[in-house]
Amino acid sequence: MQEIARGDKEALAALYQAYFRRLAALLYPLLGHASTVEDVIQEGFIKLWHKAHTWQPQRGNGEAWMIALFRHLALDQLRSGKRRTAVSLQSEQEDVAMEDKVVFDAPAPGFPHERERIWHCLNQLEAQSRAAILLSYTQGYSHEELSQHFATPLGTLKSWVRRGMEKLRQCLCH
């Protein structure tokens, strides 16, 4: 990220080559259209080029910062009403394997069991926390939309997500 902040176009090109497929796999479930995914990725790399200097290594690694940037762009695209994947929210009672609906690309280099670790940790969460987190992060649903779906107060839903994310973080860090 520091090389890109210094204006290194080759570093940006290498990052694009290394992450295009992974970003596409992350964004497709949110956006639902390959052309929209490509547009968001292109816009994201332009934004990354202009904002790389704002990345602060002490606040987290560059990959997490970059993925958050792309995810936020995709959510902005959804909220602007341009496109939204038609996804039906599942009720808490339905025993549907979310794993089949969430696309993960190949594991990151140095993390060969990343997918298995993520699902192991997700399965440690309470059902409502897991469902809210997955629908929020993989399908782009807002807390308000999830609150309506689960017929629960917004504050309760946010607590589910917060507690679930804390447990997920603890599990993934061990």
Automatic annotation (TrEMBL):
UniProt KW keywords: Sigma factor, Transcription, Transcription regulation
One Pfam entry name: Sigma70_r2
Domain named RNA polymerase sigma factor 70 region 4 type: residues: 115-168
UniProt xrefs under Gene3D superfamilies: 1.10.1740.10, Winged helix-like DNA-binding domain superfamily/Winged helix DNA-binding domain (1.10.10.10)
Residue stretches making up the RNA polymerase sigma-70 region domain: 15-83
Keyword Endoplasmic reticulum set for record: no
Superkingdom of source: Bacteria
Family to which this protein belongs: Belongs to the sigma-70 factor family. ECF subfamily.
PANTHER family attached to this UniProt entry: RNA POLYMERASE ECF-TYPE SIGMA FACTO (PTHR43133), RNA POLYMERASE SIGMA FACTOR SIGZ (PTHR43133:SF62)
Protein name from the UniProt record: Uncharacterized protein
Organism, as annotated: Pokkaliibacter plantistimulans
Lineage: Bacteria, Pseudomonadati, Pseudomonadota, Gammaproteobacteria, Oceanospirillales
